[in-house]
Target: Putative amidophosphoribosyltransferase
Amino acid sequence: MAELLLPSVCAGCGGLGAAACESCLAELASGPVPVAPGVAALTRHDGVARELVLAHKERGRRDLARPLGQALARALPRLPRASPDADGTWWFVPVPSRPSAARARGGSHVMALARSCAARIAEQGGAAAVAPALRLSARARDAVGLDRAARMANLAGRVLLDPDGAPTPGTPVVLLDDVVTTGATVEACTRVLASHGAVVTAALTLTAASRTVAWPRHRVKHRHLSPTRVIGELNEGGRR
Ligand SMILES: [Zn+2]
Model:
């Protein structure tokens, strides 16, 4: 109970008043930026944005699900191919975590983002649904340190469709995740959804840890990143 009485602390800057302050959330507001075909991220996995993502994912800051999910919702109109279904309902599919990781975190952190994203649309008078259509086999290992080829091999046959959670075939869906690293996970998820009739119109993530993205010049932070640090960030981004 005690923590309910304490003021929120911004996970990005430590300021008092909100789970994420307006200044830190502004770091997520200028995108989305294309990362790979059909995949976009709000910003790069760096600085304040990285802090927010890691606090939500690894440090139990579930109070960040609401502002981060809202940031995803705000970006939807700027995704050229993303669309709701014929009835106007947006469908979101969260990228699954390994079962053991989700248990350790007290539930799927990406599911929490997707629910918050859908809630934002509903608050604005729209319609949205979260389809828990995918799960990751317990046989999938932690992706930390794996390159793209190794990630693809790790995921082969291990991203599974949950028929009870899937929308009807032909439904356009937006795949959501917190970090995209090599794109292997998004690709595997898209393939499984497509093979069961869903139409993945876009994949959207909070941040991208990819080194190959041509970020807009004003978004690039001019600070030195040692190779060790870059690899560390990629590893953090890859932990499912
Ligand atoms: Zn802040």
